[in-house]
Amino acid sequence: MKTILRVLYVFLTIGAASTLHAAEISVPETVDVCVYAATPSGLTAAVAAKQEGLSVLIVEPGRFLGGILGAGIKPLQDCPEPRSVGGLTKAKIFRLGNDPPTFRQNCAAWIAQEGIPVLFEHRVVSVQKEGKTIKAIGVEFTSPNENGVPSPTTKKGSEKRITAKMFIDCSYEGDLMKLAGVAYAVGREPRAKFNEEPAGVGPPTNWTPIDPYRIPGDPSSGLLPLVDPDHGKQRGDGDDYTQAYNYRFYVTKDPLKRIPFKKPENDDPARFELVGRFVEYLVKEFGDDEKELKKRLSDIFPGWINSGEYNYKRESLFTIAPLGVSRFYQDGDWTVKSDVWRQHLDYLRGLHHFLSTDSRVPEWFRKSTAEFGLNRTMHEETNGWPHQLYVRITRRMEGRYIVTHQDVLNKKTPEDVVGLALFGVDTYPVRRYVVADPKSGKIGVATEGNMFIGGNRGTGVPYGIPYRAITPKPEQCGNLLVPVCFSATYIAYASARMEPVFCILGESAAVAAAQAIRTDRTVQEIDVPALLKQLSERGQVLQWSPKTELQPPAWLPKGGKNLARNAQATASSTFRNDPKYAPSGANDGVIDIKSHGSRWVSDETAGPHFLELRFEKPQTVDAVRIVNGKADGHGSVHLPINDFVLQYEDAEGNWKDIAATKTVDNENPDFGVLFPAVESSAFRLFISNSEDGVARVWELELYKVAP
What we know:
Layout: E1 2-11, E2 19-28, E3 30-36, H1 40-51, E4 56-60, H2 87-91, H3 100-114, E5 118-120, E6 122-130, E7 133-141, E8 160-169, H4 175-179, E9 184-185, E10 204-208, E11 213-215, E12 218-223, E13 251-252, E14 258-260, H5 273-286, H6 290-300, E15 304-305, E16 310-311, H7 326-330, H8 334-357, H9 363-370, E17 373-375, E18 396-397, H10 405-408, E19 417-421, E20 425-427, E21 431-436, E22 443-448, E23 451-453, E24 463-466, E25 480-481, H11 490-496, H12 499-519, H13 528-537, E26 568-571, E27 600-601, E28 609-628, E29 630-631, E30 637-638, E31 641-649, E32 655-657, E33 670-690, E34 696-703
Parallel strand pairs: 3-4, 3-8, 4-5, 8-25
Antiparallel strand pairs: 1-2, 6-7, 7-8, 9-18, 10-22, 11-12, 13-17, 14-17, 15-16, 19-24, 20-23, 21-22, 26-28, 27-34, 28-33, 28-34, 29-30, 31-32, 31-33
């Protein structure tokens, strides 16, 4: 039998962002695989399932593809070791673009090219099970508002029934998982439960001597908004708090792009009184140093500029998002979730208004802040607001294997690894609360829950996520995989919760689903060694075996003098205009992969980028060596330039490709090639793609090897 579903397909309009068009099409009543949520993980899962010969339907509660990667985060932003990534994540996700509209548009083109239908604006509301098997899910229409905030309700009477042999929950909330009756955890486990030293309640951070009470000095007057009482739990105890969420948003002062922040309706001036007291403290402490004061005030709003977009500034007592409300989102229904989402939007609006108008804020900063508005070019369809809140963590499945801090530290070696992860234990504050200074005993306000153990590279050695961590316990469900809200402790998830990891696990989940369908087994019963073999054949990286040193080309000893040393180096751009990364660093003869210095680094734009060497007189060249990439801090190199060609300038001033040097998907940080001799006064390395959008070259060397 077949049923008619109203399925939204994504079409592209030339020169504009992707738009949605509805079309009545006939689809099978039962698909092989239903992927819930079009997050990046959902996209890799859907495409992998389609490549495995299965029929697929994506159900997406919102209007857009791409999740948080279409709302501010860059594909490689939280991937410190791209060599640990393979499969569709490396081949597709990393190449879909580094700004929100480009990423969303390219996602749309990819899914359309694969011929995968997407049912937009439908949220799962029910699950029909027979025993441990999901037979069908019920989804109802729901539409976010004009700013992208999800609706608290669905349209009654709009329910559609989606049946499938396998379901993959790729949502950030784990809603399908919960409705399927699969066990999960929320909040912070106590330190003792899994023997995790960083777990549970942590020490106060950002303690500041400001009075938290409505009437200063009078606790009986009650606390001001935006601060919680201390719950009294001890260090290492568990609780229901979870780390902060926030928008990854873009602002501008350009009147042609600017959408003004609107003051929230019914905004209570007292809401930001504590921020006012914090500003007074900053002015008192740093008022004689305008540069430092500006930095401290900017940490409050617009926050920390990451890679063009603004993020939460964890070292500031106040910044761009409310604290303490994410704990209600993690396991709340959509009435609660929608309210928490709206609170983030209204908080940011109100904070902007406060810092633009309150007399305690220096006039020069008020004026500067008032000039900021949302950048319409990044989120045209949602009034400049990102369509996705950065929901860092919600429910975590309690599966057959729980990833813990011991895994993150590489103290465990599971045999069923279906993807690698690497990042420090990265938790943003969970709360802002009243606490006494441990030295003076004076009452003040602090944050708690913030840690970043090991920085973005963590231990420096990727660790494995087992297949058992993305599958439920067999008695709970046999045809569901969970690659986003996978089975992990709060601490371990804080390291593994990065989009590339979710994408890797999405692809692995789909391949496992395909095997389960073909062999008529549950996801727990499949042949795991066969799965791992197939994943490796698809290019997934399941074991860590990095190249630890540069390997110069074999012809280099015969190369003689590096001709590039005598050239004048120029480039298309320099990273943040920092002289340390000037093009002259690429022909100074210095290669030191233990540092980030003595190299050329481009800016963060999409490119293409180029590095030019110009000589006083023509040179005959028949070989090039390009030492490229980024030091990983462990004597190795990652993030190489991927697609490039060496060019020469002809007599008419035109740039011509040297065909033998044209390279696609380069992974070699010490690239070298011989080619038929070319004579010219200028050579140019033209770089059309690098893994994170930034080109990095330690040395561009030119030689005459042949006699």
